[in-house]
Amino acid sequence: MTNSKYGYVKTFEQSTTLLPDTYMIVRIDGRGFHKVSAKYRFEKPNDRHALELMNVAATAMMKELPDINCAYGNSDEFSFIFDRSSRLFERRESKILTTVVSTFTSYYVHLWPNFFADKPLSPPMPSFDGRVVLYPSFSSLRDYMSWRQVDCHINNLYNTTFWALAQKGGMDATQAEKRLKGTMASEKNEILFSEFKMNYNDEADMFKKGSIIYRDYDNSNPEFSREASAAAVFNSEKSDLSKTQREKERKRRVKASITIEHTDIIRDEFWDQKPWLLSGHLDS
User: Quick one: pLDDT band at residue 219, thresholds 50, 70, 90?
Assistant: First the structure.
């Protein structure tokens, strides 16, 4: 059909190529998940099973796409950070975005019974949308990651206090919203402690800090060690790797274990301990 008289229709297709040598983030968000959480009676303010389902779907995504260095998620969203030198799909935005969204959604639906065996899915099915954002430097990428974790904290503190007022304080939604309107973080903490004997610091780190998922390397194998990976990141960002070198790096990524943590990613400590992730000190 390519050479038929109808082939001209391909000239209407448009493709956006993402800028090279930039940090590429694909962020997916649940579509209408307030309805999903109500339909399947997710526990409020946090449903551990729902969050763990998001984490395992994100882990499966990273296994599918070795170009993803790490991912951060909370609630019904996940941000996937691709290696700066990634040439996945020749960096065509539509291919990358649709692949990430469809693959994540597929795994979310596929793995659902592992976490909600007594709540089978029915139409309308859970789905996700997404966007691609490019960042030119490690510092701007760090700021993005910090922004998402700060947002996690703000939302979780509000939701924790709101549901305490609703579930334990006998308020309806309107009353709880009115009570919290204009309150600072310290005031929400005081409400939790003085009225419900709840210390926000005792809440699960997954709820307060979200989940950071990253590739870790086996130091017992020099070829796939953390040091080798950090060096590979340096080389991939500073020069064009040969086909052989790129294949070696791909194998290193595939063989890496994938780790989930619920920790502070705003301070330097996390990134300083894992220089192979984003090569943070090379362009600062």
Answer: low
